[in-house]
UniProtKB/TrEMBL annotation, chain A:
Enzyme Commission designation: 2.3.1.50
Organism per entry: Cyprinus carpio
Higher taxonomy: Eukaryota, Metazoa, Chordata, Craniata, Vertebrata
GO CC terms in record: endoplasmic reticulum; membrane
Protein's recorded name: Serine palmitoyltransferase 1
MF (Gene Ontology): pyridoxal phosphate binding; serine C-palmitoyltransferase activity
Cofactors named for this entry: pyridoxal 5'-phosphate
Function description: Component of the serine palmitoyltransferase multisubunit enzyme (SPT) that catalyzes the initial and rate-limiting step in sphingolipid biosynthesis by condensing L-serine and activated acyl-CoA (most commonly palmitoyl-CoA) to form long-chain bases. The SPT complex is also composed of SPTLC2 or SPTLC3 and SPTSSA or SPTSSB. Within this complex, the heterodimer with SPTLC2 or SPTLC3 forms the catalytic core. The composition of the serine palmitoyltransferase (SPT) complex determines the substrate preference.
Signal peptide: none
EC class: transferase
Family (UniProt): Belongs to the class-II pyridoxal-phosphate-dependent aminotransferase family.
Catalytic reactions of this protein: tetradecanoyl-CoA + L-serine + H(+) = 3-oxohexadecasphinganine + CO2 + CoA; octadecanoyl-CoA + L-serine + H(+) = 3-oxoeicosasphinganine + CO2 + CoA; dodecanoyl-CoA + L-serine + H(+) = 3-oxotetradecasphinganine + CO2 + CoA; L-serine + hexadecanoyl-CoA + H(+) = 3-oxosphinganine + CO2 + CoA
Pfam families named among the record's database cross-references: Aminotran_1_2 (PF00155)
UniProtKB/TrEMBL annotation, chain B:
Matching Gene3D superfamilies: Aspartate Aminotransferase, domain 1, Type I PLP-dependent aspartate aminotransferase-like (Major domain)
Entry cofactors: pyridoxal 5'-phosphate
Membrane-spanning ranges: 39-59
Protein name: serine C-palmitoyltransferase
Main location per the UniProt record: endoplasmic reticulum
Keyword Membrane applies: yes
Entry keyword set: Acyltransferase, Endoplasmic reticulum, Lipid metabolism, Membrane, Pyridoxal phosphate, Sphingolipid metabolism, Transferase, Transmembrane, Transmembrane helix
Domain of life according to the entry: Eukaryota
Enzyme Commission number, as recorded: 2.3.1.50
InterPro entries to which the protein is assigned, alphabetical: Aminotrans_II_pyridoxalP_BS (IPR001917), Aminotransferase_I/II_large (IPR004839), AON_synthase_class-II (IPR050087), PyrdxlP-dep_Trfase (IPR015424), PyrdxlP-dep_Trfase_major (IPR015421), PyrdxlP-dep_Trfase_small (IPR015422)
Length: 485, 533
């Protein structure tokens, strides 16, 4: 009651004059209840203590003396920089090719028919391409001495980009100087931390590196299994409904290959496009193996299925297979592609493609445009090789009839990958002795997410004749019978 | 007057960058680097400049959104309008409003050899840099101060070009296979033996792209449980390689040996964070010449630290190979050190050899391991034969093995050109960063408007320069970067220097407060006065 009385008196006095405020405060202090004063006193003492005590370090404090630290530094032994490699490791010594890697290739001193280089359209030994490259060399020299932003943009680069965009019937194209870096730089340019990418299990290594560099959430769906993909998309939809605000800013992508290099089959593109519009995800298509192979004019898997190319947000391919040059490109609408000119790491921070290689690619494009019959020939040859290799005892053919690069896997594995590889290598050596050049498909065993089984790669090119194909199939059959019995 | 004196002394030059007295014996010749501090007035004006640009940026975005102004940006498809937007508006704010205004200084197309003189395609823009049109005219004989052509091997005549032509005719252009499959040509083996001999290491390996050499091989060398100590200003490829490896990354201050030593000690003493297990290995990533700063790594001290703490050293000599050292063997040669002290020597062929690609050199065990486990040998196409031939010919020329003294002449010419160019710029009163011996010369511009103005004014005087701003450099430290080449003659350099001086006076770029030859204090006063007008 006394407290209330003091308060009413205070308010009256406040109105009366400011000079009485100090006196009133002291009086209120005397008249406040004891518990109030004690509480305030304790709080003030606590504040003083906090002000003068040492700051609390959240990281570990080092209680070690200097001498102990020196001892630790003395004792520490690092691992060797690289683990030792045994001299008889099978992949240590590469097969050496003497001379150009053309249709008749000289491997380890033996002249063979080339069933191993990705020279689908036979343009590696084209005289026209070599001539154009020579002319370019005489005009520009060899290297570009700079990235695209700093006087590394040549008129041939601009021409190649225009021609590629026109060929693929998209708005714009961008070229990279290294095939591996193309999709590995494109994915992180659009997809950042927090975005979601749905990718096929059989995606190639450069896609995997792009995914890793992007730091996004990656969800794998079973190879070419649209139901599994739809299941993942539905799950994501349910997640979105729980948190619609977040869902509005998370970007979603599906990354697939047109023709998979690891399994040699084609992705079901029309189904993917349907899923795209149903669940609002963007599609990135990697067409290294299908560019210049599938479709009536060689435009890839979109032409093969008759899908509108604008439905695919980004198409990436390397120019090292059908175009027989070096480098890679991405094409699509300007809205999408232009972004990479400032944020594609492999584009901005790396020297541009040497002009002679760009000229070679332009000439290869010219050849492709002048003679669209070549794709029909290649597709027929692929079917022929696929049929010829069927029925090889102990080996099964993995891949579609239209695929230009097939895999031959062991029907019954020995149980250990090393032994499988030894057997397959023996078959390859046997074939090379009989003048058929084959190669084992190579993988980084510890780094691949879904390691494909060991296999022999058989590549079809337009330069192979009927007779050569028959001979190769015969040779492989003999090798399989002899080595795998 | 007293106030001005105080300001002058506080911003006056400091003696050549000193290092610990105990380490003086490691350096055989004086190591002179300077990074003059930004004058305070300039810093304030730069921030103001960016502030004004940002305000205008918001204004223009507002006008574009409300359709008062025509929008030149490409738009999303109608059918995909309800998809999650591909770009967030804010991400591209800088691109739309600042970069677009001065975009004509970059991506200038050229149509000749990128040698000491080049021909540029003329471009005009009818709508303030949103689109460009080629008029068809060619600006001939523009002096090239931007291409990385340190030894002048970017040429289309001469032994290199002839050898590359022969190789094209014999081998063709493409390879279409990886090194481990059937893409390993005899030319690759020849190149690798030559590179190992050039560097003075046991063995080496070559790759098709310099950027990819870093991003594919660092993950093969380190992994989880390893520590990477990387310099503040390392190139994007080193940063990407370190990230992809999955190791813990710690950054030390640029070229600062005390910072590096502290990190090393802390790392070994405390071990991995939280578990305190010892680190499996420690890798130090440094570059030979840092291309944005022009500084040279303090290699003797880094090697001393590396030996003391048993760490491994990865040296990226992208810019320094061929450009430094009496025999052109890079920064190891420049300091007179033993190449076997550097565990992993990496470099590129793009700059001094006029080709493309990268290499890694080191002990035989290292290279054997990389032959099996590098991402590039398993999944990436091998190098193109004419490129290899260019590297072989130019490397033999530098080593003097082609029978002529051309290589040695070019090395001397580059060194002379560098010293002359830097000295003249310093005398004129510009702020130049970097080491006195580095052929990369950054000239500070600071203010955003001067970036565009410098590039355009130099082009009007027929000199092609490179200007760099954010995000490649810190936001207030934008600069123009000159690359001196052995192909530049004294006349070309003089012409360039006169033009730079003219533009420098026009744009008031001569910020330096250091004592210049002759003019003791008057220049600093005149600078202050001119800004008070």
């Amino acid at each position: 009651m006394k407290h209330a009385h003091a308060q009413s008196r205070d308010s009256v006095k406040m109105a009366a004059g400011q000079q009485w405020v100090l006196v009133e405060m002291v009086q209120a202090f005397y008249e406040a209840p004891a518990y109030h004063l004690i509480l305030e006193g304790i709080l003030i003492l606590w504040i003083i203590r906090l002000l003068f005590s040492k700051t609390y370090k959240l990281q570990e404090r080092s209680d070690l003396t200097e001498k102990e630290k020196e001892e630790l530094i003395e004792e520490w032994q690092p691992e060797p920089l690289v683990p030792p490699v045994s001299k008889d490791h099978p992949s240590l010594n590469y097969d050496v090719v003497t001379g150009p890697p053309s249709h008749k290739i000289i491997v380890n001193g033996k002249e063979c028919i080339n069933f191993a280089s990705f020279n689908f359209l036979g343009l590696l030994d084209s005289e026209r391409v070599k001539l154009k490259a020579l002319l370019s060399l005489k005009k520009y020299g060899v290297g570009t001495c700079g990235p695209r932003g700093f006087y590394g943009t040549f008129d041939v680069h601009l021409e190649l980009e225009e021609r590629l965009a026109k060929f693929m019937r998209t708005e714009e194209a961008i070229i990279y100087s290294y095939g591996f870096a193309t999709i590995a730089s494109a994915i992180p340019a659009y997809s950042k931390r927090g975005d979601i990418i749905f990718v096929d299990e059989a995606a190639c290594f450069s896609i995997q590196k792009g995914l890793q560099a992007s730091r996004s959430f990656v969800k794998h769906f079973k190879h070419n299994d649209m139901e599994d993909l739809e299941r993942l998309l539905k799950e994501q939809e349910i997640e979105d409904q729980k948190n619609p605000r977040k869902a509005r800013v998370i970007r979603r992508f599906i990354v697939v290959e047109g023709l998979y290099i690891n399994t040699a089959d084609i992705c079901p593109l029309p189904d993917l496009v349907k899923l795209k519009y149903k669940y609002k995800v963007r599609i990135f298509l990697e067409e290294s193996m299908s560019f210049g192979v599938l479709g009536e004019h060689g435009r890839g898997v979109t032409e093969h299925f008759g899908v509108n190319i604008d439905d695919i947000d980004l198409i990436s391919a390397n120019m090292e297979n059908a175009l027989a040059s070096i480098g890679g490109f991405c094409c699509g609408r300007s809205f999408v592609i232009d972004h990479q000119r400032l944020s594609g790491q492999g584009y901005c921070f790396s020297a541009s493609l040497p002009p002679m290689l760009a000229s070679a690619a332009i000439e290869a494009l010219n050849i492709m445009e002048e003679d669209p019959g070549i794709f029909r020939v290649l597709q027929d040859k692929c079917k022929h090789v696929h049929k010829a290799l069927q029925g090889t005892p102990g080996l099964k053919v993995v891949g579609e009839p239209l695929a230009p690069a097939l895999h031959l896997q062991l029907e019954n594995s020995t149980g250990s990958r090393t032994n499988d590889l030894k057997l397959l290598r023996a078959i390859v050596d046997y074939s090379m002795d009989r003048q058929i050049a084959l190669t084992l498909a190579r993988y980084l065993e510890k780094e691949e997410r879904f390691l494909p089984p060991p296999s022999i790669r058989v590549v079809v090119t337009v330069e192979q004749t009927q007779e050569e194909i028959e001979r190769a199939a015969q040779c492989i059959r003999e090798a399989a019978v002899k080595i795998l019995k | 007057r007293n106030m001005s004196l105080i300001i002058f002394t506080s911003y006056s030059s400091f003696p050549p960058q000193s290092h610990h007295a105990s380490c003086t014996s490691l350096y055989k010749k004086p190591f002179v680097e300077s990074f003059e501090e930004t004058p305070l007035l300039v810093a304030v004006l730069t921030y103001m400049g960016y502030g004004i640009l940002t305000i205008f940026g918001y204004l223009r975005d507002f006008l574009r959104d409300w359709k008062f102004e025509k929008c030149h940006l490409a738009r999303e498809r109608e059918e995909q309008k309800d998809f999650v937007p591909l770009y967030q508006d804010f991400e591209n704010f800088y691109t739309r409003n600042l970069y677009m205004r001065i975009r004509d200084n970059w991506n200038r197309p050229i149509c000749s050899v990128p040698g000491a003189k080049m021909d540029l395609l003329e471009r005009v823009t009818p709508d303030y840099n949103w689109t460009f049109e080629h008029t068809g005219n060619v600006l001939k004989d523009v002096i090239n101060m931007g291409s990385y052509n340190y030894l002048g091997f970017a040429e289309n005549t001469g032994t290199c070009a002839d050898a590359a032509s022969e190789c094209t005719v014999k081998y063709g252009v493409g390879v279409s296979s990886t090194r481990q499959e059937i893409g390993n040509l005899d030319k690759h083996e020849e190149l690798e033996i030559l590179v190992a001999r050039f560097l003075g290491v046991e063995s080496s390996m070559a790759f098709g792209m310099g950027f990819a050499t870093n991003s594919m091989n660092i993950p093969a060398l380190t992994g989880k449980g390893c520590l990477i100590l990387s310099d503040e200003l390392n190139h994007a490829s080193l940063v990407l390689g370190a990230r992809l490896s999955g190791s813990t990354i710690r950054v030390f201050k640029h070229n600062n040996m005390q910072s590096l030593e502290k990190l090393l000690r802390d790392a070994i003493v405390h071990g991995q964070p939280r578990t305190h297990r010892p680190w499996k290995k420690i890798l130090i990533l440094v570059e030979g010449i840092y291309s944005m700063e022009g500084s040279i790594v303090r290699l003797p001290e880094v090697i001393a630290l590396k030996k003391k703490y048993k760490a491994y050293l990865y040296l990226d000599e992208a810019h320094s190979i061929g450009a430094l050292g009496p025999r052109g063997r890079g920064v190891v040669d420049y300091f007179g050190l033993d190449p076997s002290d550097v565990d992993i020597m990496m470099g590129t062929f793009t700059k001094s050899f006029g080709a493309a690609g990268g290499y890694i050199g080191g002990k035989k065990e290292l290279i054997d391991y990389l032959r099996l486990h590098s991402h590039s040998t398993v999944y990436a196409t091998s190098m193109s034969p004419p490129i290899i031939q260019q590297i072989i010919t130019s490397m033999k020329c530098i080593m003097g093995e082609d029978g002529s003294t051309l290589g040695q002449e070019r090395l001397c010419q580059l060194s002379e050109n560098t010293t002359y160019f830097r000295r003249r710029l310093h005398e004129m009163g510009f702020i130049i960063y970097g080491n006195n011996d580095s052929p990369v010369v950054p000239l500070m511009l600071y203010m955003p408007a001067k970036i565009g103005a410098f590039g355009r004014e130099m082009l009007k005087r027929n000199i092609g320069t490179v200007v760099v701003g954010f995000p490649a450099t810190p936001i207030i430290e934008s600069r123009a970067r000159f690359c001196v080449s052995a192909a530049h003659t004294r006349e070309m350099l003089d012409k360039a220097l006169n033009a730079i001086s003219e533009v420098g006076d026009l744009l008031q770029l001569k910020y330096s407060r250091k004592n210049r030859h002759g003019n003791e204090g008057s220049d600093s006063f005149s600078f202050l006065e001119s800004h008070q007008d």
